[in-house]
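User: Predict the full complex structure for these chains.
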Amino acid sequence: MLKVALLGAGRIAQVHARHIHDHPDTTLYSVSDIYAEAASTLAEKYAARVLSADEAIADPQVDVVLVATSTDTHAGFSLQAARAGKAIFCEKPIDLNIERVKSCVAEIKALGVPFMIGFNRRFDPNHAHLNRALRGGEIGELEHLQICSRDPSPLPDDYLLVSGGMFRDMTIHDFDMARFQLGEEPVSVSAIASALVSPTVKAAGDVDTAVITLQTASGKIAVINNSRRSGYGYDQRIEAHGQKGCLYVHNVPTTTLVKVTEEFGAQAQKPLHFFLERYQEAFSEQWKAFVAALKDNRPVPTNADDGLRALLLAEAAIESFKTQKVVSVNLEE
Amino acid sequence: MLKVALLGAGRIAQVHARHIHDHPDTTLYSVSDIYAEAASTLAEKYAARVLSADEAIADPQVDVVLVATSTDTHAGFSLQAARAGKAIFCEKPIDLNIERVKSCVAEIKALGVPFMIGFNRRFDPNHAHLNRALRGGEIGELEHLQICSRDPSPLPDDYLLVSGGMFRDMTIHDFDMARFQLGEEPVSVSAIASALVSPTVKAAGDVDTAVITLQTASGKIAVINNSRRSGYGYDQRIEAHGQKGCLYVHNVPTTTLVKVTEEFGAQAQKPLHFFLERYQEAFSEQWKAFVAALKDNRPVPTNADDGLRALLLAEAAIESFKTQKVVSVNLEE
Amino acid sequence: MLKVALLGAGRIAQVHARHIHDHPDTTLYSVSDIYAEAASTLAEKYAARVLSADEAIADPQVDVVLVATSTDTHAGFSLQAARAGKAIFCEKPIDLNIERVKSCVAEIKALGVPFMIGFNRRFDPNHAHLNRALRGGEIGELEHLQICSRDPSPLPDDYLLVSGGMFRDMTIHDFDMARFQLGEEPVSVSAIASALVSPTVKAAGDVDTAVITLQTASGKIAVINNSRRSGYGYDQRIEAHGQKGCLYVHNVPTTTLVKVTEEFGAQAQKPLHFFLERYQEAFSEQWKAFVAALKDNRPVPTNADDGLRALLLAEAAIESFKTQKVVSVNLEE
Amino acid sequence: MLKVALLGAGRIAQVHARHIHDHPDTTLYSVSDIYAEAASTLAEKYAARVLSADEAIADPQVDVVLVATSTDTHAGFSLQAARAGKAIFCEKPIDLNIERVKSCVAEIKALGVPFMIGFNRRFDPNHAHLNRALRGGEIGELEHLQICSRDPSPLPDDYLLVSGGMFRDMTIHDFDMARFQLGEEPVSVSAIASALVSPTVKAAGDVDTAVITLQTASGKIAVINNSRRSGYGYDQRIEAHGQKGCLYVHNVPTTTLVKVTEEFGAQAQKPLHFFLERYQEAFSEQWKAFVAALKDNRPVPTNADDGLRALLLAEAAIESFKTQKVVSVNLEE
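Assistant: Here is the predicted structure of the four-chain assembly.
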C-alpha cells in the first residue's frame, strides 16, 4: 500500500484525494495546505493526518508526494520531494517560467525519481480510445489533427491575470494532446489570436480566442482552436484525418435524453459542463496509470519532458503571435 | 414514349404530373378532373390536353391511365381502364369496401393488364435501403420489426370522417411496409387503440392512437405505432432486429444544421414536415419503377394483391380492436 | 452511520458492497453467503465481518439488511429481517410465486419497516431525466410510451430454466419502468411472443422475443419489446410521445469515438455491454435514494407494492399470451 | 421565358442544362462545345440547337450566356457576352491569372450587364440555413468559423497539373464560403500546407493538405482545412462559434440507415459522395436565385467582385505559404 502525501486541499486536490482513497493500492497518508481548515476538512474525510508540506515531504513513511498546490509552488515542492527520494505526481504546469522548468526538469531527471505530470486528458476514455485507434493504424498514416478546446466561460479575472496567458495556461493541455495523438514532434508553430471575450484579458494584452497550427517534419498538420468561452458548456472534441479515413471524438452529453417538438426541433443535451465532469474518469484513470507504473517499475506515461515540451510549444505560439511568423521549434534537443 | 392519361388534378396528381414530365420515357397526354379549372391549370403547365375521364380512358393514344382521383372512384376507373386494355397506376386504396376490392382485383387479374397500386413508401431510398439490407442477410434472420408512423397533425375533420377509419386510411401504408420488410406474410393481427387526439374522431367511434402487432408463421413479430398527431412533424422510422444485429431507418431532418446553446442544448432540425416532403423522392422512384416494369414486360413491384392484402390486415385490426382478441388471417388463400 | 448486513456475495452483492462503502453515511458491517469463501473475500475487501444470514439479521448492531441472495430466498430473508425490525433493501423479485409475494408484501406492510425493492433502472440518470421531463409536462399529456429492452445474449441455460420465464424475469423491469414513466396504472395487458433465440427456452415452452402492450384507463398505451438476444449489446431505450412532442432516451455508447471510412461508413460505438456497465450509476443512485429516504424518514422510492404490481403485470402477460386475448388488471385493489 | 445559350457540354454544363430546362422561366436555347458530338447529344436531349460559341453570343434571341467551358476560356467568353449585352452566368473561376481577373471584372462592371459567378455552395440548403441563422443573430456575434472541405480522392493528375494549384482551384470555394458566413472581409491570411496525398502534386511543388487561417479587422477568425483526399467521401462541414453558442453544418448521409452489430458497432452511412451529389440542390437553387435577380432587376447574389476577392485570398495564401508569414490583404480597395 503506497502512502501518499497530498500537498494542497483545493478543488483538484479533493479530486485526487478521492481517487487515492478508492484505489486498492494507495492510501491518503496526509494532507497539507496553507489554509489549515481546508487541510483538516479534507484529511478528516479520509482519516488522514494534517502535516505541513515540509513535514510531509520529510516523513519517511511517505512513498508518494502529490503536488496540487498553486502553480508557483509546483517546481519548489517537486524538487524538494525529488531530493527526499519520493515518487512525485505534479499537477501541470511545472512552472510558468521556461528557464525554471528546464532547470527543474534537469535536476529531477538527474535524481532519477519517478515524476509524473498531470496531463489528465490523455486518460479520458474517449481520447485514449482515439489514441489506440491511431497507433493501431485504423486510418493509416495520420495527416491532419484538429483539436477543439473551449471553456464554458472565462475563469475569474484574478485567475486570468496570473495564469501566464492563454497559451501557457489553457492551450498547454492541447499542445500535450497534439503531441500525444500526432505521435511525432511538431517542428513549427503558428498562432493567430484575438481578444473577443473578456475585456480584462484584452486590457492585459492577452488573448482569449485563438487558432494555433503545428506542423511536423513529415508534414502532418495539427490545428487547435481555443476560446475562453464557448457559450454552451465545455467543448472538447478531436478530429483525426488519415490516409484511410477519419476519427472523431465527440463531446459527452449530460444525459442521452432528446426532445423533439414543433417549436424547437430535436434537442439533445449539452456537453458535460466543465473539466470536473468531463474528465472525472480521466482523473481516476490517470491515478491508476501512475500507480501501475510505480508498482511495475515502468516509466510513467507523462513525464517531466512532456511538461517541458508542452511549455516550449506555448512559448513558440506566443512568439508566433507577436511576430506574425511561423516559428520553428526543436523539442528533442 | 408512353402517353399517360392522368385522372385527377389535386395535390397527389400534381406530384405525379411532374414525375411523368421529368421521366424521359413518359409524357403527360391528358388531365381529367371534375373541377375543370384544376384540370386546365395542370394541363397547361405541361402542355397536355384536358379530357373527361371517359374520353381519356377511351382514347386509343393513351398507354397508361393514372388514377389519382377521390378514393370512391379508384375501383371504377381502374376497372374501366383495365377493360380498355390500358396499363394502370392506381393510388391506394383500391376501395374501402373489402368485398368491392376483392371483386375488382379478381377482374383486373383476369384481364391481365399491368396494374400497380401506389404504395410509394417502399420506394423511399431509406426504406428501400433497409429492404436491400434485410434481403441481403445483413442482420441474419429478421425477428422483430418496428414501424413508427405518426402524422404531424390530424387531417381536416371532413376528411377523417370519410377516411374509412385510421386502420384503413393510415395504417394501411404501414401494413404494406410490414409485409415488404418482413418478407413473410402475417398470420395474426392484434390491435390496441385509443382516441386521444381528435374529439371528432372520438365522437365518430374511431381511434387516432394505436399499436398493432402482427406475427408470422415462423414467429417474426412486427409492431406498428400510429398517431394522427406527433406534435413535431412527420415521424417515419423503422427498426428491424435480427439474429446478428439491428437496422434503423431514421427520419430525414430538414437541414443538417445543429445549434448548441447554454439555454436549449444541441438543437437539430425537425424531420421533414409531411409526406410530400419526406416521400418526394419516393414518388419519383415509384414512377421510374412502374415505367421500367412496363418497358421490360416485368411484373410491377406493388400489384393488386398488395392492395388487397394490406386492406385485409386493416379489417383484421378492426376486428381485433373490437373483440379484444388476436385475429388470425390468411392472406395467401 | 448506518450499518448494513449484506446477504449474498455474488455479482450484484459486490456492486452493492462498493456503493455501501463509498456512501458517506453507510458502512458494510457484515457479509453472508452460503459459499464461505465468497463471503470472506468480499468482507475482507471492505474490512467487514463474515456472519451467517441468521446471525446478521439478529445482530442488534445492524440497521439495514440488504437481500442480494438467490431469488427463492428473497421473501424469507425479507420477512425475517422485517420481523427483526430492520430496514430492508431487497433485490427484485420478492418471489416468483404471486401468492407468496402477496402474503409477504402484506406482512411487511403490516410490520411497518422501510422496505425497498431493487428496481435500479428508475435511477439511471437518463431514465430519471425522462421522468422529470414527463412529470414537468415538457411534452404535455403522455399518449404513447415505448420501451426497448433487449439483452446482449441469452443468459446460461440453467439460469433461464429457473428464471420463472421471460415475463417474470426480464419484462418485470420493463413493467416497472412503464408504471414509472406512465404515471398511471395499466388496466389491460396484451402479449404476443415467440421463441426465436434459444432452443432451450423453446423446448421449455417459454419465449425469448415478445411485444407486450399495456393500456391505462385514460387510454395511454405503452408497448414493451423484449429479446433475450440483441446481437449488438444491451439495448435500453425509451420513447415517450405526448401532446406536444416526443422524448427519447438513447443508449449510452462505450466511448464517443466515431470512425468514418470508405468501406464501413461512419462507425459509432456499440451501447454499453450489459446492465453492470449501463446501470453502474443507477445502482449508486439507487443506494443514495434509499439512504436518503431512511435518513429523512420519507417513504422509499420503490416499495413492496411496486414489487407486487410489476409481478401482477407479468402474470397478466402470461395469461394474455396463453389465451390470445387482452387481459384486464386492477393493480390498485 | 429567358433563352439561355449554354457554352460547354461537359459534366457541369449538363447539370446546368437540366436546371435551365426544369425552371419554369428559362429555356435551353442552344448548346456550344468544341466537341461537336457532346454539344449535339446534350442539345438533342432538351430540344435545343447546336451553335458555335460565337454564333450563340451574337444571337439576338439569346438573353443569357452561361459559361461552363474550360477555365482558360471563362474570361474571354464572359467579356464577349458582356459586350454583346447579355446577362452572364460564369462558372468559377473567372481566370487563374489575377491581373486578367482584375481587368475582366473592371470591364464587366463598366458594361453594367448582370454577371453572376458560380459559387454554388452558398445555395446549399444547409449552408444557406447557417447563413440565415448567423445573420439572424442566433448565436450573437460570430467569433470563430471553421470550414472543413475535403475531396473524396484526388482528381486526375492532368487536371491537378493545370488547376492553378490547390489554393486557387479548391480552397477558392472555401474562401468564398468564409466571406459569405463571416459577413466581414478578412484582412489577413496565413497558410500552412503539406503534400501528403499525391506524388504528382508533390513533384509539381504544389500541396494537397492545408490549414488556412483568416482574420478580420474586428478579430473574427476563420480556419479552413483542405485535403485532396478524405478517404471516406466528400467532407463538407462548417462550424460557427459565437457569443451565445455554436452552429454546425453536418454532412448529408446517403441514406438514414444505421446498422448496429456486435462486430462493427453502429454504422451510419457515409456522406454523399462528391459535389454532384452533395450540391445537386445547390446548383438548382443557384439557378433559381440568378433568374429571380434577373427578373426582379436586383443585383445577383454572387457577383464579379466575389470572384475577384476569393482569388485575391488565394494569392495571399500562396504568398503566406511561401514566406511563412501572415499576409495582409485589402479586399475592398
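Chain D touches chain B at residues 22, 125-126, 129-130, 133, 138-139, 244-252, 255-262 (CB under 8 Å).
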